[in-house]
Fold:
Amino acid sequence: RCVEVAPEGLAGVDLIPDPYNEEADWNDLRGWCDRLASAGLGLTVHAGEFSTANLAAALSAPGVTRIGHGVHVADRPDLVEAVVKRDVALEICITSNVVLGAVDSYEDHPIKRLLDYSIDLSINTDDPIHFQTGIGQEYEIAHRLGLSEVDLRRITESAIRHSFTTDDRRARLLKSV
Structure:
């Protein structure tokens, strides 16, 4: 259905492998990624939130330009290299990662390390009602964790560059930062 409605304005799809916390069978998932990307859809894959499971497979799948969460990329240099080489952005949800136990505490969150590795990031809320947060609060937390205003601007620009929107809208948004 996503392929069918892509011409009507659907811009992207978020895939979650099953199982999520262990390596999934990517034979069918790769086919779906290829089909969705061929339809012009942006692809996010949830992976690497609680372990490195599914990260290598997601990074080798066709059309994937974003990884939902991906905080455990920081655990392995080969994954850091693959993310940078493929120009994949990580969608970072600091509060969600702490509340769900993906990281032990705010202070242990690897967002600064990921940025230092030159990985493109976006800051997100995940589920703002459930986690009682908003995008402004997530940016404040990132700042308290040591990210400068320059870092936060870089993250915002990265989020825009990796957004599933038109080139014209992307250019207008980048100009406004």
In short: Strands lie at 12-15, 42-47, 64-69, 89-92, 120-123. The chain has ten helices and five strands. The longest helix spans residues 26-38.
